[in-house]
Amino acid sequence: MTVMHSNGDTPQATDVPNCTTDLSIEDVKQELYNRHHPSLTFLDIEAHAKTIHKIRMLKQKHNVVMLGHNYMEPLVFGLSEKEEQGDSLGLSMYAANTDAPYLIFNGVPFMAETAKILNPSKTVLVADKSAGCSLADNFGAEDVRKLKSLYPGAPVMIYINSYADAKAESDICCTSANAAHIAKTMPGDTLIFVPDIFFAQNLEEELRDEKNIVYPGKDNTARGAVCEVHEKFTLDDLLAIRESFEIPKGHAHRKLYAHWECRPNVLKEADFYGSTSQIMKDIAERVAANQLERAFVASECELTSNLAQEFPEVQFWTACSVRCSHMAQVSLNKIGNILEAIDQDDDLSEFEITLSSEIIAKARTPIERMLEASV
Ligand code: 13P
Ligand code: SF4
């Protein structure tokens, strides 16, 4: 695994202003330079300023909401206003409540499906409908039905990283920000959790005195999946990172973070684990208390790129080989193409998420139950 150091400069992040009226390409360049992002060189800025300018002007002209998942590369992430950025839970909540006619979801298709289910009258668009996800792609409605037949009467909690057909067969949905909480609210001793096997094992450990968590592959032959990105981190990697970057376990100002989708022994080794936003929140709180000087985050590498911009006072290292190839399908050019198609009133079917009304109705119940249980 290749690990890189963020540079030692201490830039001040400057937010992109909300109002883009009369914004020139030079203004866009200046804003990008003002970000002092450790991985944004003048080459990137000069190469992309024109496309970013076009996107921002058309976004405003057509009143487009542009949701950006925390794993988007910095230039794409920066296209979304602060309130349009977040983790799967936050973005679902935002999508449910927006009045904007167009919603461009900078993330993978299962996320955009959730937005469509929660707000079906809106036109929901993604840069690449075939982007995929190793969790969602390898699990479907038939797999849920099989588990239900193996554990009759046990409720099914499905991770949001799944497609609508699988959600439609499930009782409640969850994200990595609320899985443990929601599991505790479910009736009975046994809960089926799908499709993420590592996440299920981590949940099993967290709730060992409260719930019997069953999942694909646990005393059964049902099919499950893992996140191919988080799977890459091994315990040996984490121990090597601790040693080479001098982040000893339990150090007061140096922390090793891991996402719920990592292997159980990786989670145990981490100083803190959570969803992408929970990790960001913990970092923000420690920075505010002047208590974080160095961090490594065992998750998708662009999360760290975005953290490095937001918290320049912290030294971050990233593992560049741990990049989600699915998320990386979202590019400035593809986003620009969507907006041009809107502007020219072209056919949007290449980008638009469509689901049958039957699937929307069935998949909506588990997602709405999750949102009710999350507040
Ligand atoms: P969260 O943002 O919900 O933590 O999701 C992580 C992830 O893997 C999304 O694909
Ligand atoms: Fe899927 Fe990529 Fe998220 Fe892993 S990081 S769950 S592969 S979208």
Describe this structure in words.
This protein has 375 residues and is of the alpha/beta class. The chain folds into three domains: 13-133 and 326-343, Rossmann fold; 134-224, 3-Layer(aba) Sandwich (Rossmann fold); 230-319, Rossmann fold, CATH 3.40.50.10800. Helix content is 42%, strand content 14%. It is built from 16 helices and 13 strands. The chain has helices at residues 25-34, 42-61, 74-77, 88-97, 109-118, 134-137, 141-150, 164-167, 179-185, 197-206, 235-244, 264-269, 276-288, 301-310, 332-343, 357-374, and strands at residues 3-5, 64-69, 85-86, 102-106, 123-125, 156-159, 172-174, 190-194, 212-214, 254-259, 272-274, 294-298, 315-319. It has a five-stranded mixed β-sheet with strand order 1-13-12-10-11, with helices on both faces. A four-stranded parallel β-sheet has the order 3-2-4-5, with helices on both faces. Strand 10, helix 12 (264-269) and strand 11 form a beta-alpha-beta unit. 47% of the residues are buried. 1,3-dihydroxyacetonephosphate is lined by residues 70, 87-88, 161, 175-177, 227, 261, 275-276.
